[in-house]
């Protein structure tokens, strides 16, 4: 059945995904004489770079989420539907969603990425935690705290250590920032909450299959970050592949086993495409696009951000799956749609690399941009500033700033709450 | 099996429930030479009077929750366990919980209250929403927003109205404050989020079985509050019993039916006792206590707050189930335990009635204390002040104040997020 959408007689631009890329397109098309339909399975935009702070009790989910309906209030020619898109029928220019079908004139696929567990079977990956959206981050927060509560109850020292140990697989920015935050919690917060636990026995492991963490950054920054996470007492395992996990014990490539009740997988992401595109338009889980972000072999379909693979000499595997690429590609697609409607020339994509940064707990971060590199306190301040400024919404900027200020001054993270909304009986659906 | 608790050789005071009453006892016993064990099924204290603000997107759950482990950091002779208490075996002075058994020397039952659906069978009450804890409040928030999303999808006008209509059963403070907040949202927020919905068709109903709302307050305040909620466009049905609900349609006593997809039940609470007490110690769901809060027919067991029924001439049905009673009874029990250990005289309970207040949306509230009565803006400011000051924790005071300030200035409530933490596959338990 067709999705109910007010008919305006105008060309319809459908944007799938309210992440960094999708909302950029909507913003830039707000004065164009088209109907914009933004779709997302959540009713909010999530600022993913700070998810690890929600998982570690430093920020509220509401501080990094922004209601998409509020965002759409500034897009007079747009409307929002909460929907999961299943596939596209390019022959009739329609997408099929869980709430109905929808015709498009221009389709922008901005569906981002999901966790990539590579060859792990479900029975292994299901036992690992992931952190790609707010429900997962809240779940991780509750899970770690529940394990600590359980650790107090056992007389078995080995079981206790298993419950309090945390392993992070993947030494990219997410893994490193999470390891830093957990190291800080072990040092400053958890011992006060759990005086009965001997925290010298709590191990935080960080596994990285290559020979350095933050391998997308300069080698000097990798070394600095390595020192910072080690200073927080994190055990870093370089050149180490995790090969198995049974819920209690992690196995690494040489057969060694590590007792660990919580394993957080940050070692891979993959594109999250929709079905219905030509096989020749797919590169694994990413969608192949030309230099205008147009999906190969299809008309009026664009893909941007994590889900898009624009392959060229400089980026033989496509662009990095980070927010700035999504935002810049969103901007380009919007401008090209405007240009094509006005019969002007469309432009090709040129990635402006703003650099990279990662924070490692209190006072420490690394950053690099345009050949400049920096580590330590100033980099940490810069990290704070950039993240606050790129958050959407004035309220979120303020609450994050004040939350951080409070956490910094008090050495505390007060949101150590085990909230499990579904453990009650008045769920109607 | 016995619960693992460090043995100190000291007398053990076990407090069941980390609500207003329970934490007051712990606070007042912190210098006594006993071991305090605080138990709660959640790992946080919840400031229940503001739950309706969480349900309506005005406050984050973290702003009204306070981690009990953080609270216990100031109680050097105390420890916390997250546990659900099943029953007490008074003969051997032990309680049985989901995590093990525990001996007590003094037992304080501060288990509060739960929703009372009276004679409704489960198939009716399961279709109504309740709002007695944070998971329920978050669930209600998501449920209302999901209904609005669904309303956009239907061509059936009747179905649409059913989805957007909200009924509140019970004209006590919770029902009235919730009705005010929803009325305000319909006026200032929802029309901007859902421009496709005609809000003249959205009905907010408030049902009260007696002849006035806020019947515990002076009749003048009932009248004022009635005017305030009506000004927000709420339909108030006095002298009206709700007799049935099938998920789509509410039935009232005269047989009239009202289309309504969301029904929130605030019309009754009942004590939430533990099992194992003598029948003669129970008055329905409340536990009978003497003037010292000691449970009748038992030794070394106290009940305080909502779950306790101290019946005397002035309070033939027991004291009102409100926070000040719980706090004052907690204070009394702590002092009497100290007195009895020091062989001093114990004191009987005298309720100091601080008055009552309720807010009805923006700028409006009613309050009364010691014969003084007030309504309007000044009462509203007083309501804000009292609630902020009684919140636990400096951070919560600040975040609530700033959140309210933001909401007030912008006429907005930004937390319109549908967060359903359990809809993902990495739940391990």
Description:
The structure is a homodimer of 429-residue chains. By secondary structure, chain A is of the alpha/beta class. The first copy, chain A, has two domains: 134 residues, FAD/NAD(P)-binding domain (3-Layer(bba) Sandwich); 202 residues, 3-Layer(bba) Sandwich (FAD/NAD(P)-binding domain), CATH 3.50.50. Chain A has 13 helices and 25 strands. In chain A, β7 and β8 form a beta hairpin. The longest helix of chain A is centred in the C-terminal third of the chain and has 19 residues. Chain A is globular, with a radius of gyration of 23 Å. Chains A and B meet through α3, β4, β5, α6 and α13 of A and α3, β4, β5, α6 and α13 of B.
Oligomer: homodimer
Which ranges of chain A are low-confidence, i.e. pLDDT below 50, for 5 or more consecutive residues?
422-429
Coarse structural class of chain A? alpha/beta
Kindly provide the radius of gyration of chain A, computed on alpha-carbon positions and rounded to a whole number of angstroms: 23 Å
CATH uppermost class of the largest domain in chain A: Alpha Beta
Cα end-to-end separation of chain A: 22 Å
Report on the biggest sheet of chain A: 5 strands, parallel
Number of domains of chain A: 2
- Percent helix of chain A: 25-40%
Q: How many strand units of chain A?
A: 25
The appropriate CATH architecture of the largest domain in chain A is: 3-Layer(bba) Sandwich
DSSP strand content of chain A: 15-25%
The average pLDDT score of chain A comes to 94
Q: Largest beta sheet of chain A: what is the strand line-up?
A: 5-2-1-9-21
Discrete helix count of chain A: 13
Here the CATH topology of the largest domain in chain A equals FAD/NAD(P)-binding domain
Largest interface: A-B, 73 and 73 residues
Principal-axis shape of chain A: globular
């Amino acid at each position: 059945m067709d999705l109910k959408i007010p008919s305006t007689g105008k060309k319809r631009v459908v944007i799938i995904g309210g992440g960094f890329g999708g909302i950029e397109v909507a913003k830039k098309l707000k004065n164009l004489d088209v109907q914009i339909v933004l779709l997302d399975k959540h009713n909010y935009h999530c600022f993913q770079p700070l998810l690890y702070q929600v998982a570690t009790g430093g920020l509220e989910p509401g501080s990094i989420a922004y209601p998409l309906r509020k965002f759409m209030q500034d897009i007079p020619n747009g409307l929002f539907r909460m929907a999961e898109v299943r596939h596209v029928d390019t022959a009739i220019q329609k997408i099929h969603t869980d709430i109905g079908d929808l015709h498009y004139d221009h389709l922008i696929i901005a569906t981002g990425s999901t966790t990539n567990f590579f060859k792990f079977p479900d029975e292994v990956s299901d036992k690992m935690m992931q952190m790609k959206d707010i429900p997962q981050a809240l779940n991780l927060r509750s899970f770690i705290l529940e394990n600590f509560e359980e650790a107090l109850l056992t007389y078995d020292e080995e079981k206790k250590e298993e419950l309090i140990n945390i392993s992070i697989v993947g030494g990219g920015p997410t893994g490193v920032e999470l390891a830093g935050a957990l190291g800080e919690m072990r040092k400053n917060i958890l011992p006060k909450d759990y005086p009965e636990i001997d925290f010298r026995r709590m191990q935080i492991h960080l596994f990285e299959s290559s020979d350095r963490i933050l391998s997308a950054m300069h080698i000097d920054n990798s070394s600095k970050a390595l020192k910072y996470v080690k200073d927080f007492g994190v055990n870093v395992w370089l050149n180490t592949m995790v090969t198995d996990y049974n819920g209690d014990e992690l196995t690494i490539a040489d057969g060694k086993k590590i007792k660990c009740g919580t394993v957080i997988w940050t070692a891979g992401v993959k594109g999250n495409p929709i079905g219905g595109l030509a096989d020749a338009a797919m590169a694994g889980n990413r969608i192949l696009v030309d230099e205008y972000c147009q999906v190969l072999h299809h008309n009026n379909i664009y893909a941007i951000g994590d889900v898009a693979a624009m392959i060229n000499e400089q980026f033989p595997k496509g662009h990095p799956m980070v927010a700035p690429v999504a935002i810049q590609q969103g901007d380009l697609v919007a401008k090209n749609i405007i240009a094509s409607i006005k019969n002007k020339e469309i432009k090709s994509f040129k990635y402006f690399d703003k650099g990279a940064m990662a924070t490692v707990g209190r006072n420490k971060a690394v950053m690099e941009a345009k050949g400049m590199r920096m580590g330590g306190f100033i980099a940490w301040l810069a990290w704070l500033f950039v993240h606050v400024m790129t958050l959407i919404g004035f309220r979120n900027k303020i609450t994050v700033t004040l939350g951080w200020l409070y956490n910094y001054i008090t050495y505390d993270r007060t949101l150590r709450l085990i909230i499990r909304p579904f453990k009650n009986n008045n769920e109607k659906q």
